[in-house]
Amino acid sequence: MRTPIIAGNWKMHKTPAEAVAFVNAIKGALAELSAVERVVCPPYVALPGVAEALHNTDIAVGAQDVHWEESGAFTSQISAPMLVGLVKYVIVGHSETRQYQGVTDEMVNRKAKAALSHGLRPIIAVGESLEINEAGETQAFVERQIRAAFAGIPAEDLSRIVVAYEPIWAIGTGRSASGEQANAIIGGIRATLAELYGAAHAEAMRIQYGGSVKPANMVEFMSQPHIDGALVGGASLKEDAFVELVRLAIQAKGLA
Asked: Which of 44, 68, 84, 102 could form a disulfide with 110 if both were Cys (CB 3.0 to 4.6 A apart)?
């Protein structure tokens, strides 16, 4: 069985001091919930403090993005070598980076390869706009994103990659896909990966859902067979809510 993974994407929230206080407040409760992999992704400036606070725990730290070059004249950017020793995971291709920073499918591929080359584990985010969804083109659009993101990535690297399906229209809006809708799209992602790498590799791949995930709908998503976790935004900023999401994931997958 695929080990579920719940990752909190804090986006541009929490100062370094607030971030450390937050993980110190939740790490005791999360330590008892080890049937699910737990990841927190604070802003860059909070990474050293959070990494230190979570040292000697099995709670992982992730970065919210990475540049594909190792160094250079890329003002404001962070490279994979800069993250080594601080994080285990790095989110690439989140829709907000695509929308506000001009990140393209090709860039996502290069970011993922850069992360892998330095021992980091990419969480590759894909998802469609409301217009694409309403036009009935979600499956084809997401398939193109997957094919572009995985171009040139060998099968032996797949065990270190997580995919996150996040419909753009459900991020931070309070709207979410139904469990069945999300499961169908994620099943399509798995089918695309099977075409690229074979059924065994596709079945082993962990694929999260993201988009207004909260305790009230967590079981609906986690009870679906293709959904292996959640990439959580707003609810990951609240101590009780994030811990409850992990508990519910364990419950829904029958891991208690």
From this structure: 68
- Domain 5-252 architecture: Alpha-Beta Barrel (3.20)
- pTM exceeding the 0.85 threshold for the entire prediction: yes
| Residues annotated as part of the active site | 94, 166
Bridge pairing between strands 60-63 and 37-41: parallel
For residue 122, which of 224, 35, 222, 41 has the smallest C-alpha distance? 41
**DSSP codes of every residue in the chain:** -PPPEEEEE--S---HHHHHHHHHHHHHHHHT-TTSEEEEE--GGGHHHHHHHTTTSS-EEEES--BSSSSSS-TT--BHHHHTTT-SEEEES-HHHHHHS---HHHHHHHHHHHHHTT-EEEEEE---HHHHHTT-HHHHHHHHHHHHTTT--GGGGGG-EEEE--GGGSSSS----HHHHHHHHHHHHHHHHHHH-HHHHHH-EEEE-SS--HHHHHHHHTSTT--EEEESGGGGSHHHHHHHHHHHHHHTT--
Residue 97 CB neighbours (<10 A): 18
The Cα diameter of the chain in Å comes to: 49
* CA-based nearest residue to 88, from 125, 122, 113, 54: 122
State residue 102's pLDDT score. Answer: 97
Q: So where are the chain's domains?
A: 5-252
pLDDT at 175: 78
83 phi/psi in degrees, rounded to 5:
-95, -15
